[in-house]
Each structure stands twice: as structure tokens, then as C-alpha cells.
Task: inverse folding
């Protein structure tokens, strides 16, 4: 009889702890979801209303090994309808103007700008094109969080290249 009481007591204790653990896990999951949604809403407001800056940490040139950009300063800055680009390029160039410095370095007005938000996947996509003297560029920036963004650049005269990095509010230096 005492053995049966011990078994019942152990089982009851087990169910109480299991129930408490499940409830705390469920609460934690709900807290994480609401935190992610709140962060995504803040990101949407920042991208809609403020200038942003993408800074790459890794480059992925087509047909080559990926590169760490720790020692290569770079950025894509978007402010209103203007874009300021200073990104390194690694890969194949099909035609190059003599005296041109490597990489993508220019600024101008964005053309064909598309802005998409996917609330379900918590992703923001900004696509646009820009024209330089001898080349046309297509930019595709996908943002899935402040520390999770990717940029792809396609060019008429160079092989495609992608970058992974961060997006933050751009504070203009005076």
C-alpha cells in the first residue's frame, strides 16, 4: 500500500512539473513571437521614414570563393529616392573603362524602385536600378532583420555579386 502511494505521488509530481514546464515553454514561444513582430514593425518604420545604410560583411562573387569584407569599407545608403554606393567588386569584368577604380562607386537617383513588405515572412525587399556612364545596375536588397540582410548587384559589364550584412539607420556625417 505504501509503495502504491509513493508511485501515485511520484506520478502526480511528474504531471505537475510537466504541466508547469509546458506552460512556461508556451509563454516563452509567444513572447519570442511578439518580440520578433515588434522588432519587424520597428524595422518597417525605420526603412519607410529614415535613411538606411547596408554594410556588407561577406561578398559572394559568382564563380569564386566568398570573401570577408572586414578590411574593406563598404556601404549602400538609401535616402529618399537617392542611393549612394561604395561596394567592392570581386569577379569577372567584361569591359572596363581605363582609369576606373575597382568596385561600384557612384551615387544618383534610383529608377524603377520597388518596395515590398511580407509580414508573414517578416521580410522587406527593395529593388531598383541605376545607370552610370557606361553601365546599368540592378540592385536587390532583402532585409529580414537588422542583422540579416543581403544585397545582390547585377551589371551589364560585370558578373553578378551578392553580399551579406547589416542594415541600420544612416546618420549623415556633417
Result:
Amino acid at each position: 500500500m505504501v509503495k502504491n502511494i509513493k508511485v501515485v505521488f511520484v506520478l502526480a509530481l511528474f504531471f505537475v512539473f510537466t504541466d508547469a514546464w509546458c506552460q512556461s515553454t508556451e509563454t516563452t514561444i509567444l513572447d519570442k513571437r511578439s518580440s520578433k513582430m515588434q522588432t519587424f514593425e520597428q524595422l518597417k518604420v525605420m526603412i519607410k521614414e529614415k535613411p538606411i545604410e547596408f554594410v556588407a560583411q561577406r561578398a559572394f562573387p559568382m564563380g569564386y570563393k566568398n570573401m570577408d569584407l572586414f578590411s574593406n569599407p563598404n556601404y549602400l545608403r538609401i535616402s529618399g529616392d537617392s542611393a549612394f554606393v561604395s561596394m567592392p567588386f570581386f569577379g569577372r569584368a567584361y569591359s572596363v573603362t581605363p582609369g576606373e577604380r575597382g568596385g561600384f562607386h557612384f551615387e544618383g537617383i534610383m529608377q524603377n524602385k520597388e518596395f515590398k513588405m511580407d509580414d508573414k515572412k517578416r521580410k522587406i525587399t527593395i529593388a531598383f536600378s541605376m545607370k552610370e556612364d557606361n553601365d546599368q545596375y540592378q540592385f536587390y536588397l532583402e532585409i529580414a532583420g537588422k542583422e540579416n540582410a543581403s544585397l545582390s548587384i547585377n551589371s551589364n559589364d560585370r558578373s553578378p555579386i551578392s553580399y551579406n550584412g547589416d542594415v541600420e539607420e544612416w546618420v549623415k556625417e556633417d
